[in-house]
Design brief:
This protein is 41% helix and 18% strand. The protein has 15 helices and 18 strands. The longest helix has 25 residues.
Length: 503
């Protein structure tokens, strides 16, 4: 049985096994000469969205029904290979030879990626005569795939993977339109900047275009915030509720949105929902016998809504401050009111949940979800996941501001992910907007900090495997000087040096 949270390695191994069989099946059905690339773009609800880019001549003759027939035939071919239970093997090649092979197969993304490898050899994954570079482990045979499905959608399709608790059934697609559109837009902007994978960013750095890349990324983010600010103002909203998963850059986004609103003559105020935590002694006990910090019921919902109602009536309210050292709410004279030009931005993990702001009319509130949706793949067949990007961010921030070593952060990460699945992701589709906080250059900026931390994970610890996996990702990345990064950048929330009040 696959445990999605505790056995991520099992799930990613399964996904790569399905991937190699699918890639081979595509070659069989369509013909390698008709395929430019097959890009694994992002995951949604544990399923992978894949974009097959065919040659111009092949696309010219392809209809919507024809594309659906291709997916159906690939599905049948995959079942044939699964039933045959053919071996999946590894092959070690010299990097130069591998580059020549991929160059002949018209796979420039892989060629460029391998050109930045510091080792002289590379290990390829081989199946039924098809060879590619897959980052990470893979199953030993095609018969290890117990269930999968292919679901055409827009210009691509979803590779559907097994249910965590039922390996014989596939996950629901659970398509969240606003999340899909946000991720697709991230890829569009990456394509616009000609930086679609790690190798592209490396090349930009080598070509002396680091400053140009940084300024372009920050300009895009500023523009997105400005558009959101205009939308909030035009809709007459008085409250902005901002939420997102761990290390998505919620705090920096809240303050930068405040400045975007201020540029239109609005007086923004930023508060944290954490300040409405119940006193430690009043917390519910979770299933492990510990005080509950994760669920929405760890917050004093009635007090929060009473305060918001008072603000809407034009009254002054003294806002609380939660002292994490004493485990109690305190009042330190932070008194506010909401005038005609005032907008209150509330940041916290439960802000998208309607229970949190139950007393505030929908016409008065704007829900903003922030998430790190990296469009920057390792190459066309290997994804950089949102979870891994956020984990790298959190490792660096925890080391800098919380004195947590990497092993401790890695150990807690599965529980953090479980909390996100329970308390954040189910409410994503209720957001008025999803703002992507992944920055194309951030791995290059964060690499020196993350590597030092990850190399400190003991080899004999349970966390070593994940640390090694993250180090392998970072090994592809060329670092940049942090001196070039603006003080207001999202990246500064994690590496330090932010001019915003992000801790």
């Amino acid at each position: 049985m696959i445990d999605y949270y505790k056995n991520e390695n099992i799930r990613t191994n399964y996904a790569r096994t399905a991937e190699i069989v699918m890639l081979k099946s595509f070659d069989d059905v369509v013909g390698a000469q008709n395929i430019e690339k097959i890009v694994f773009e992002f995951s949604m609800n544990g399923n992978y969205f894949i974009y097959p880019k065919f040659t111009k001549a092949f696309r010219a003759e392809l209809t919507e029904d024809g594309f659906k027939d291709i997916i159906k035939n690939v599905w049948m071919k995959m079942h044939d290979y699964i039933e045959a239970d053919l071996p999946i093997t590894k092959k070690v090649m010299k990097v130069d030879a591998a580059m020549n092979m991929f160059r002949e197969r018209n796979m420039p993304d892989v060629v460029k990626l391998l050109s930045f490898r510091r080792t002289s050899k590379v290990t390829l994954t081989c199946f039924a005569g098809y060879e590619t570079y897959l980052y990470g482990s893979v199953g030993s045979s095609s018969g290890q795939i117990r269930s999968f499905d292919l679901h055409p959608y827009k210009n691509g399709f979803f590779l559907m993977l097994p249910e965590p608790n039922d390996p014989d059934a596939t996950l629901d697609i659970n398509l969240i339109e606003n999340l899909f559109d946000a991720q697709a837009d991230a890829y569009r902007l990456a394509h616009l900047l000609d930086n679609e994978n790690i190798a592209d960013v490396n090349q930009a750095i080598c070509d002396g275009k680091t400053t140009e890349l940084i300024l372009s990324c920050e300009a895009i983010f500023n523009n997105n915030l400005s558009l959101i600010a205009q939308e909030i103002i035009n809709a007459g909203k008085k409250f902005v509720f901002l939420a997102g998963p761990s290390s998505s850059g919620k705090t920096s986004t809240a303050y930068r949105l405040a400045y975007a609103l201020r540029s239109y003559g609005i007086i923004p105020r930023v508060i944290s929902a954490d300040n409405y935590y119940l006193d430690y002694a009043d917390r519910r006990i979770d299933e492990n016998g510990n005080p509950d910090f994760e669920s929405i019921y760890a917050l004093d919902l009635d007090k929060f809504n009473d305060d918001m109602q008072a603000l809407m009536r034009g009254e002054e309210v003294e806002l609380p401050y939660y002292n994490f050292k004493t485990g109690k709410r305190e009042y330190n004279g932070n008194i506010i009111d909401l005038g005609d030009k005032d907008i209150l931005i509330v940041e916290g993990i439960h802000c998208l949940n309607e229970q949190f702001s139950y007393s505030i009319p929908s016409e008065k509130k704007y829900k903003l979800c922030v998430s790190a949706l990296p469009p920057l793949n390792i190459d066309e067949h290997n994804r950089l996941t949102s979870s891994d990007l956020r984990l790298i961010r959190r490792l660096v921030r925890d080391d800098r501001s919380r004195a947590h070593n990497a092993a401790l952060t890695l150990r807690k990460w599965p529980d953090v992910r479980k909390g996100e699945e329970d308390n954040i992701f189910p409410y994503t589709e209720t957001a008025d907007k999803i703002l992507n906080t992944a920055i194309l250059y951030e791995l290059a900026a964060i690499k020196p900090f993350a590597e030092r931390i990850l190399f400190g994970v003991p080899r004999d610890s349970d966390e070593y495997f994940k640390a090694k996996e993250l180090l392998k990702i970072l090994d592809f990345v060329i670092p940049i000087s942090t001196d070039l990064i603006p003080a207001h950048s999202i990246v500064r929330e994690f590496i330090g040096g932010s001019c915003l009040n992000v801790g």
